Amino acid sequence: MKRNIDLKEISDGKLYSLNDMVKAGCSDCKGCFSCCEGMGSSIVLDPLDIHRLTTNLGVTFEQLLEESPGRIELTVVDGMILPNLKMTGKAERCAFLNQEGRCSIHSFRPGICRIFPLGRYYENGSFQYFLQIHECRNQNRVKIKVRNWVDTPDIRKYEQFVADWHYFLNDLEDIIQHSDRDEVIKAINLYILNTFYIMPYCEKDAFYSKFQERLIEAKAWMEQYRK
Fold first, then answer.
1. What confidence tens digit (pLDDT) does each residue in 61-97 have?
2. What is the pTM of this model?
3. What are the C-alpha distances in Å from 136 to residues 82, 111, 118, 152?
4. Band of residue 174 on the pLDDT scale cut at 50, 70, 90
């Protein structure tokens, strides 16, 4: 999800890479879960997030949508229909938050949750991290290496995936914004949902290679809609 905002207003003014130290450590949150409620539809899920959820929970994408009360939902993000974590109940809490206020999917939580309170600043085909200074209520955070905070296997492959997905969506959004045909917009959204979210990636450890194969095919496919 794009945020058109001055970085100086929401961060400490620095950009971080994997080997930098950043003041993000929160001592396992100590029972705080303020970032797990009231988030609306802002926790947008990428294909790896869904792959991790379906694989570890043993469910399909459709089941995540349909199971009462539903743990994810679809929303429009910059012209694209994409899944996001669903907030439930009067308190608008994440559907994966348990009764003790702890994340029930912590080991395979989505990327946005994984890096919080960090954000991503995209430029020149890649990205760096920045520290959001107003988002986390914990005022006693300690410094930790960004690599350790993100805590993701094959982190270089992961970062390449994140960048590839972001800029691919940018290209699709540009096509959608310049199209005046509803059938084109519908076709693009159905294609993205089916190709990158609904169709399983099969082997658990083959996600990145399978994603790249689908990305190459998708880029070729979308050329038909360029003006």
1. 999 998 766 899 999 988 899 999 999 988 899 999 9
2. 0.92
3. 25, 16, 10, 21
4. very high
Between these two residues, 34 and 182, which has the higher pLDDT value? 182
Instruction: Say which residue the tokens 């109940």 belong to.
Output: 89
CA distance 117 to 24: 7
Query: What is the reported pLDDT for 204?
Result: 66
The structure tokens listed for 164 are: 């590839």
49 within 8 A of 111, measured Cβ to Cβ: yes
Distance in angstroms (rounded) separating the CA atoms of residues 9 and 196? 34
